Amino acid sequence: MSIQNSILESAQKWLSDFFDPEVKKEIRAMLDNQTEELQDRFYKTLEFGTGGMRGIMGTGTNRINKYTLGRSTQGLSLYLQKQFGKTGLKVVIAYDCRHNSKSLARTVAEVFSANGIQVYLFSELRTTPELSFAVRYLGCHAGVVLTASHNPPEYNGYKVYWQDGGQIVPPQDGEIIAEINSLDYQDIKFEAQPELITEIDTEVDEAFMEASVKNGSFGVEGKEDLSIVFTALHGTSITAIPEVLKRAGYTNVNLISEQSIPDGDFPTVESPNPEEPEALKMALSRGKAIDADIVIGTDPDSDRLGIAVKNTTGTLELLNGNQTMVLMTRFLLDQQSKKGFQGNEFIATTIVSTPMMQAMAKAYGVECKTSLTGFKWIAKMIRDYPDQHFIGGGEESFGYMVGDFVRDKDAVTAALLACEIASWAKAKGSSFYQELLNCYVAYGCYRERLVSLTKKGMDGAVQIAEMMRRFRENPPLTLDGSAVIRIDDYQNATSKDTLSNATRTIDLPKSNVLIYTTEDGTRLAARPSGTEPKIKFYISVCGAVSSVNQYDRTKSELESKIDRVLKDLKLDE
Predict the structure, then answer these.
(1) Which of 97, 101, 200, 308 could bond 316 through an S-S bridge, CB–CB 3.0 to 4.6 Å?
(2) CA atoms 434, 435, 437, 442: torsion sign
């Protein structure tokens, strides 16, 4: 095959003496054969995006390796020095169970230290929420976690947190990207200053778990009667969730031992993503066998949470992220109401999550702030509104944040909160599921579905861009027969009323997202994923339910409506 000259030149630069001998050997072999593999590894530089990097591990500019991460760390080091001065800088680093995470974390620590920055490095794998907590606990200027979240085993990643414990947002993200892009690989300082690297573990663990129990438990009854099945899916949550549940008073916690051992191959699942039912198959089987009340699973870095609870027939049913978020938020609002609302409270959600959050906020008389997709934007809200009290919030992608002691989605505290709700409900003769149905009666029955289309490689990126272009230039006029009355284009920051042709400005940072809303409340959102080679479509529909007994019928009607929307858009193929 013919390889572009730019790709060959990019690869040949990795033959200089700066790169390790084994790297140069691998590059020479690829240059000799000039395969598609060479093209994929060098057709672009793996970008440091608005939250960090995520990609396949290996040699090359389009891969996660010591050089691509070293360049990002060098740029971040220089940026920190410009912002805070060259003395007294501190960062904290954590890593998950993935292959090479520990060695890459050590490399990142060495680059920071080579730039004169004090580094706190977790001695073993830890959860992402603990890293977020540790940034503020240790008084650091930034934090880094090595993780690819729920991506396949060949991936790894690098997420950056600012001094407030939240992921970087504007203007820091763009300024850091500019700093990184100004560097060559030869600019990386790899000569570590070992005296500046301190390993941490127990002290921070204790502080984090104490804070998790404090924020996630509410003195409910029935803890000893709640039967829990928990799986870490080979990830980091095994270091925190069992102990947090124990300290909160839960004694009947059944671990899936086969999935409790951290393993970057994730050998017992096709994907370590609790959003996918197959990932919890083993835990659900155990739950059925012991008649468990609740089954909980987390992704590798323990920020996403999957839950299954008994439905009205006593069968364990997987909930989606919207359902879990709604019930957790309602429970927290009820707890706050017992203390009394002060008028400055708010909950938070994202533009592609269920509109029920706004309906519920209205019912409680609190504000619901809505952000772009991603918890970094919810963390930014907390920072931007210091005089307001954040109760809790989440998004459809199986993430939730309880209070503000962690500034990212936190499956550790959310797992505890889920058990608190289940215990409280069971003790009063109800259930987690029954309380969810009560929400549908109170605020409307919302049903959502996510369709993700994977488009890998250079051609995939082109296909995704073309799909978004077509939706912009030829927007749907109706969805299931209901006229589209509003088009929100977050890339252009415009919201258009199609009936009056009036346009208003969206007061959020620009993002490549399109949302279409119809006259009957049906909503379609389209966005390319920021972390995976996917384009995602979010469909939301709603209907009224006057009693719990009507739920099954209304649910079926709404699911059929979603099917018709997907068929109209040719997304059901």
Answers:
(1) 308
(2) positive
Contact 517, 482 (CB under 8 A): no
Give the chain's domain count: 4
| Cα–Cα distance for residue pair 293/430, rounded to 1 Å | 12
Helix (H) or strand (E) run with residue 449 in it: strand 445-454
Helical spans, DSSP H, in 237-352: 241-247, 281-290, 321-339
Same domain, 452 and 425: no
Q: Are residues 104 and 198 in the same domain?
A: yes
Domain of residue 553 covers 445-568
Which two structure tokens, joined as six digits, stand for 440?
């549908």
Kindly state whether residues 560 and 478 are assigned to the same domain. yes
β-pairing verdict for 90-95 and 118-122: parallel
Q: What is the pLDDT of residue 3?
A: 64
In degrees and rounded to multiples of 5, residue 240 shows phi and psi of -140, -50
Q: Name the residue among 373, 544, 328 with its Cα closest to residue 446.
A: 544
End of a domain among 410, 427, 443?
Answer: 443
pLDDT score recorded for residue 239? 98
Position 456 scores a pLDDT of: 85
List the beta bridge partners of residue 484.
518
388: its two tokens:
């307001």
Within 8 A by CB and 6+ apart from 191, the residues are 110, 114
Q: Please report the pLDDT score of residue 1 as a whole number.
A: 46
Which one from 132, 149, 423, 540 is the annotated catalytic residue? Answer: 149
Distance, CA of 431 to CA of 293 (rounded, Å): 9
Of 202, 237, 270, the last residue of a domain is 202
Token reading at 56: 């396949």
| Cα gap 203→36, rounded to integer Å | 48
Looking at residue 505, which CATH number applies to its domain?
A: 3.30.310
Phi-psi region of 295 (alpha: psi -120 to 50; beta: other; left: phi over 0): beta
CA distance 373 to 509: 11
- Residue 560 makes CB contacts below 8 A (sequence gap 6+) with none
Burial class (CB in 10 A: 0-12, 13-18, 19+), 96: buried
Q: Can you list the residues of the chain whose pLDDT is less than 50?
A: 1
